[in-house]
Amino acid sequence: MPKIFKSLVNSSQPLFIFLFLCSVIISSCSSTRNTVYFNNQQDEVLKASNLSSKNVIQPNDILSIAVTSLNPAATEIFNKPNNSYVSTSSVTGANLQSPGYLVSNEGNIQFPVLGTMKITGLTTNELREKITTELLNKKLLVDPIVIIRQLNFKVSVLGEVGRPSVVNVPSEKISLLEALGLAGDITIYGKKDNVMIIREEDGVKKIKRVNLNTSEIFTSDYYYLKSNDIVYVEANKAKVASSTRSSTLIPILLSALSFGAIIIDRIVK
What we know:
The chain is of the alpha+beta class. Helix content is 34%, strand content 28%.
């Protein structure tokens, strides 16, 4: 009987090896597809208008508003922002502080001479036009030029990335891919097919999941991030399993070492 079993195993050995190699190749291909961005994406031209992101002013935004004209003395009063400050951490870890106009919870700012202005829901371009029109209608300035920038435009990138951080965006425009790049990219343990974006608009939180293994992000409204967006990259099963094994094995190894030390001590004595 043992000889028959042994001959059966020997005759089936090539089949076992073949099946093992096939399973390794299949799992390798599957893991490779999960770690690559934009699988099977072909050359394509996308219209920029389909990817634009409209950032509107919201409460707690801090704005820099500068006014210039042909009469510097007349414009001086409009260039004294209130004493609110924004303190943020850049991707390099530096703390930044800038003066500006803090948008209240009611959506207002106090602008010199013009008084209280309701500005939430407007873009910076719309606010620039509004202030310019007010200055002209009230004949406060001739040919004024108004420049507006958001000082605390930032996005947070968390989870399985190289450097989880709050990314400041001076240009007020950043894509999801740029934010991930600034945060050190997604690690090999991150799930590229289930990246979560949390966005708050009009007091409502919206949660969107995108698959970076495909090219769907290029036509998504979430290609460009908005101020205060949160990007979260979930850990895959391999990372979770690794963490679980580590948390289980370390106490066992420590206990074994302690037990071994006690035994050796007893033997020596």
